[in-house]
Amino acid sequence: MAFYDGVSREASISLAVILLHRRRCPRFPNQLAPAALLMLGALLGRSPCALAGNGLLWVNTNTSEKRRSSLMATRSRPGSKKCAVIGGSGFLGQHLVEKLLEKGYAVNVFDIRQGFNNDRVTFFLGDLCCKENLLPALEGVTVVFHCASPAPSSDNKELFYRVNYTGTKAVIHACKEAGVQKVVLTSSASVVFEGTDVKDGTEDLPYAKKPIDYYTETKILQEKEVLGANNPDENFLTVAIRPHGIFGPRDPQLVPILVETARKGKMKFIIGDGKNLVDFTYVENVVHGHILAAESLHKNSPVCGKAYHITNDEPVPFWEFLSRVLVGLDYEPPRYRLPYLLVYYLALLLSLLALLLKPFIAFKPTFTPMRVALAGTHHYYSCKRAKEDMGYRPLVSLDQAIERTVQSYPQLRRAE
Fold first, then answer.
1. Which end of the chain has less neighbouring CB within 10 Å, N or C?
2. Structure pTM?
């Protein structure tokens, strides 16, 4: 790894051990121990939690007493505005952190990496699945926003399960131990989508029995775990936010991937008749929904233990949305139509072929049945419950959102 260039392995190990036993940095409390633990784990081929279990993780001898005091203080301050954003270095997480600071919250960020610099934020680096890594970030915190998740486009099933399910269980246990009162989960509207039309879908729809991919399967497990942990009698309240098609400035997925596909000449075709309506949701509206949920979450609130769809509330034809983004960045929009069923069955055939050839050659089809379904079916969701229970209204219209997003990507514009 480039981080270790010019430093011997032995010296690096010594440095990591020294860092683990240093006292807190006054500017970034608790920063060095998790970061150094990750560094030492990488060098020794051991997990951070295993090293912590061997006594290498620096722990203040008064930690337990401090946690008890912090827990009592937190519960005696119901109006406390100290929160933690788990996954705060990601796309949604950074936007959420910025809005929370603007609203006067004190913010801790827990992530595997520090994605930005802000003197008003306290960063904690560590392993999401390790409760001992999480606990320092939760001291004195009343609200946790859990938006950590791998990119849905990844093929790493083990990572999906570890982060979305195992990691979420660790988050819940750590929150309870630290005295956190509220947990707001970033879920996904896709937990009810099976590849067929969903029109104005409500939260009463059952979880998908045949999820469109393994990512969604683990998001279902995650949401069930969080909502099942809701327990007003123990002052532990949870809620899940289900956005759909998040986009906006600094988005590392939707717009960059769309532009890359266009540059390769693969955005010429429309799947189906081009009239299928889909929700795309501006990141600022998703953030607004998360904060409203947290501020509405209290004992006897209808929000407790429920899931909420949060969208722009303006369903738009899927291919029209993509075309507006492409044209805004000076690319040609798709023009030629292909029958939906033809493309779907071709994608299914290619997926089966890839599976059969897997022992011999690596073959990854561009179009999968899941991607075809996402591009060719209706899937938009009702925000009625969010409007009634927590007063949600989108802050930014779809027209404004597309304009702001396009203007934020000058580097992606088509060269003259």
1. C
2. 0.81
- Based on the residue annotation, tell me whether 215 is a catalytic residue of this protein: yes
Residue 28 lies in a domain: yes
Residue 141 DSSP label: -
Whether residue 269 is predicted with pLDDT greater than 90 in this model: the reply is yes
User: Is 29 a member of any domain?
Assistant: yes
Give dist(CA 376, CA 270) in Å, integer.
Answer: 9
Residue whose C-alpha is closest to residue 34's, from 120, 106, 128 = 128
Structural domains of the chain, count? 1
Which listed residue (105, 207, 214, 215) is catalytic? 215
Residue 15 in any domain: the answer is yes
374 located within any domain: no
Domain that holds residue 30: 1-59
Count, residues in the chain: 416
Measured CA to CA, the distance from residue 212 to residue 192 in angstroms comes to 10
- CB contact at 8 A, 294 and 99: no
Query: Is residue 16 very low, low, confident or very high in pLDDT (cuts 50, 70, 90)?
Result: very low
